[in-house]
Amino acid sequence: MTAAAAALDPITAELIASSLIYASEEMGIAVRDAAYSPNIKERLDHSCALFDARARLVAQAEHIPVHLGSLPWGLRRTLAWLEERGRRLRAGEMIVVNDPYLSGTHLNDVTVIRAIYHDGRLVGYAANKAHQTDVGGAVPGSMPPDARDLFAEGAVITPCALMRDDRVVDETVDLLMANSRTPEARAGDLRAQVAGNVVGERRFLELVERYGAAVVEAALDRALDDGERRTRAALRALPDGVVTHQDVMEDETGAPSIVLRVRLEKRGDAIRLDYDGTAAQRPMPLNSVYGVTLSGAYYALRAVTDPRIPMNDGSFRPIDVVVPEGTLLNPRRPAPVSAGNVETSMRNADLVLGALALLAPGRVPAQSGGSMNNVMIGGLDGEGRSWAFYETNGCGMGARPHADGIDAIHVHMTNTLNTPIEAIERTMPMLITAYEFAEASAGDGRFRGGSGLVRGFQLRAGSATASLLAERHAVRPRGTNGGGDGACGAHVLDAADGTRRALPAKTSIVLVPGDAILVRTAGGGGYGPPSEREPAARERDAADGIVTAP
What we know:
The protein is of the alpha+beta class and 550 residues long.
């Protein structure tokens, strides 16, 4: 801790740090309220953060877990990319970037960065990341399941000016609009992201004006040191040891052939995760850039230690994450990565949580449904207008050591909402034909897992392509301590001609009016022997119509 931070009044320091945490939340509200697309406005698929002048994360809103590690990693890489080219963010500028190998997730996640200046001095950065529904590529939604390189997934935007002299650069907006099937929504969502950063800058500068730049800087140093101290204390509460754990993902054919492996070593107040032995990168979009892998590691450790610790760079200091380059969890450019952000991130969370369960039994729930169950649909409506839709779907949460899992909820690396049926049917040529719990999907146990869900999408008019990206169609989410496994997920096409057929977990198909896709998501595993479940709990399940998986 610096001398200035140590000398600072602790109440003032806490007020400044807490104000920035709320400021990051307020940034998210601004993005939501100004957004055009349902994916951001209704599902809240965005994250906001504030950084100090040294590009250290000082406050991040309770938004998307998969962005936890990627926002700071991506900010630093973007600034380094600019510096290598003799450029730096000036006052009045904003940069936009979506290159996953710089910004840290996938092409749909567009990152906007604002440098914050006070009296000509750099004092911090505001940044946000939002999943824009369509950025070009081979299919509507920009996440083709059969992509063999990054370029099939959409337009790659290296860091370029979105604002200059506090004015939007129209040419940059035009570039993103020209590469999207829904250009008006892209322009609106970009301006919403601009609004979010302006709010963050305003709140940051209010603190600087009130307390002075030196006091704010000292308060942030203190907050980072506090994050480190609390994380180290939480790690000391875990037993020392070395454990190795592995899990699998399903390849292009649906076979569970892709191995992820981690060696977790915990000594004293520090922890190291080494992913040596993980499968090599593949010519399919399950590759996960390093920023996403970091996010999964940070999320799992926070969930098992103390999630109340403020999320900042200090809380990352005791954690060392080593991932060999050229593997599924740290691919080389230009490997496709769209599903790495949404699917491999979930399996990485399962992987690290499984290792922590070996290290510290009794603190980790059974496996959850393990997939974001992505649905991308788009095409031309009955009047020839282009449209695109994207959402993730909830699954069953794994049962906890002292409680049931939660039914049909987004878990682990995503905490987004569903898209309201009214918003879908009002703005797109689709009818929602089903939205219910998946029967017989919850793993049985002393505490049962959560049920998955069933969601049906029918095309009403025009033509469309639907792309599905999911996991846990071949390998059931495992129960823990004698608990039963959750049921697998499934995809079904109810065709307009009255036929029905199963669809793969990862596929793209052409739809005609009347075709309907049913997405069934996996249930969560159970915890403890089913024979120990309380009769009253089984009566509640029966009253709610919940049947556990066979």
